[in-house]
Design brief:
This protein is α+β, with helices and mostly antiparallel strands and about 190 residues long. The protein has three helices and ten strands; from the N terminus they run ββαααββββββββ. It folds into two domains: about 25-75, no CATH class; about 95-190, 3-layer Sandwich (Rieske Iron-sulfur Protein). It has a four-stranded antiparallel beta sheet, with no helix packed on it. A hairpin with a 4-residue loop joins β6 and β7. The termini are far apart. About 20% of the residues are buried. It comes from Nannocystis pusilla. This is Rieske 2Fe-2S domain-containing protein. GO terms for molecular function: 2 iron, 2 sulfur cluster binding; metal ion binding.
């Protein structure tokens, strides 16, 4: 298209799927007082936001909603147990990354504007090189459950294939379940 110019911005997001396709709307499943959640929209955030507003206001004011049981975040759908087992077997397979070599042998091999995994002894290190050449290094261990992150060259993010946590190029958390960023390392120790 001749009128198209340089792309300056882009958007991305994740679609969180629950085992049974229904959102999780209700009190915090961990039991925190006065904390309610609405997540797992499976791409139906507009619909679920209306449902969540109705349900959560009823739960806060009246202690119950007519849909509380259906959307209960603590529910365990029996019909989905096979999928649950398959998904968790996939997660277990992701931990095999800790046994694999790095993608590069040294930080000198990381191209400007990109990231790669480097092995440093028993550790995997997430290394990013700025266009200017400045190097940033973080532990490749996702703080959620210690899966090994991978470089997403399209988004310029570190993504954990185990549970979907995402981190910016410098290791700051973008999307959970991780609640904190990757542990920052001194890149000078990797030379």
């Amino acid at each position: 298209m001749p009128a198209a110019q340089e792309r300056l911005y882009q958007w991305s997001g994740q679609v969180f799927e629950t085992l049974d396709g229904l959102a999780h709307i209700g009190p915090d499943p961990e039991g925190a007082a006065n904390v309610y959640i609405a997540t797992g929209d499976s791409g139906m955030g507009m619909t679920h936001s209306t449902i969540a507003a109705m349900m959560l206001s009823a739960q806060i004011c009246d202690g119950e909603s007519e849909w509380s049981q259906l959307y209960d975040p603590r529910r365990k759908p029996l019909k989905a147990s096979g999928e649950f087992l398959r998904e968790n077997a996939n997660v277990a397979a992701q931990y095999a990354d800790w046994l694999r070599p790095g993608e590069v042998g040294s930080i000198d091999e990381v191209a400007p504007g990109s990231g790669a995994i480097l092995r440093s002894g028993l550790h995997r290190v997430a290394v990013y090189r700025e266009e200017s050449g400045e190097i940033h290094a973080c532990s490749a261990a996702c703080p959620h459950l210690l899966g090994s992150v991978t470089w997403n060259h399209l988004e310029k993010t570190w993504d954990c294939p185990c549970h979907g946590s995402r981190f910016d190029r410098l290791g700051e958390v973008i999307a959970g379940p991780a609640r904190s960023g990757l542990r920052v390392l001194d890149p000078r120790t990797l030379r």
